[in-house]
Amino acid sequence: MTTFVLVPGGWHGSWAFEAVVPLLERAGHTVHALTLTGLRPDDDQATVAAANLDTHADDVLSLLDRARLADVTLVGHSYGGMVISAAADRVRGRVSRLVHLDAYVPRDGESCWSSTTEPYRQAFIAGAMSTGYAVLPSAGGDPRRRPHPLASFTQAVRLTGAVDQVPRREFVYCSGWEDRTPFAALRTRLETDPGWRVHELPTGHNAMREAPDAVAALLT
């Protein structure tokens, strides 16, 4: 059986995977779904303002240490792809599989800001105007979403190359929002990389909520 650590994307918490977790657990797997620092309902303004990509990678490392986990599959959605890349690079040998679920796959020195498209950069700026340190979620959507620490979107990831030694690396492209996705060029890049396996789901960006059975099946 597999040990999964699920990392949500921007503005979201562990609840983003609430439909997938029971499917994996019923199949006999161990599942840990994270809410990253600064995204928890009781986090104060200072915590949100101080949180960055390093903080979020440390959230993953702390879980691995606290639960004494090894041979782990890290799953990151959207911004969570930045987090699992940074974490896997630091835990040499304890991660056996990476799954980037419609998620960023950074190279050394890249950030979510540099990896995304101009409309998303403009949305980050507009969303942070009221505080200067947190990007407000867009109107509508799940009311559990929280303002997301701006520094985590702008901080460049530092990778030693250890992440490239993870035995299984997979990217899931969600094709149901072709007009807005920032991941089209990334899919093209990874399809030609022998170190990666690319999947496709015909869903919008939040595949784990739109098609939890399909996501669970892909993961298992």
**CATH fold-level name:** Rossmann fold
Return the CATH architecture: 3-Layer(aba) Sandwich
Largest sheet: 6 strands, parallel
Low-pLDDT runs: none
Strand-residue proportion: 15-25%
CATH class category label: Alpha Beta
Q: How many DSSP E strands?
A: 8
Number of domains: 1
Q: Could you characterize what this model shows?
A:
With 220 residues, this protein is an alpha/beta fold. The chain has a single domain, classed as Rossmann fold. It is 35% helix and 17% strand. It is built from 10 helices and 8 strands. The chain has helices at residues 21-26, 45-50, 53-66, 80-90, 112-115, 118-128, 150-154, 184-191, 207-210, 212-219, and strands at residues 3-7, 30-33, 72-77, 95-101, 134-135, 148-149, 168-174, 197-201. A 6-stranded parallel beta sheet has the order 2-1-3-4-7-8, with helices on both faces. Helix 1 (21-26) links the parallel strand 1 and strand 2 (30-33). The model has no long low-confidence stretch (mean pLDDT 97).
Keywords:
two-stranded antiparallel sheet; about 220 residues; Rossmann fold; 10 helices; single chain; six-stranded parallel β-sheet; alpha/beta
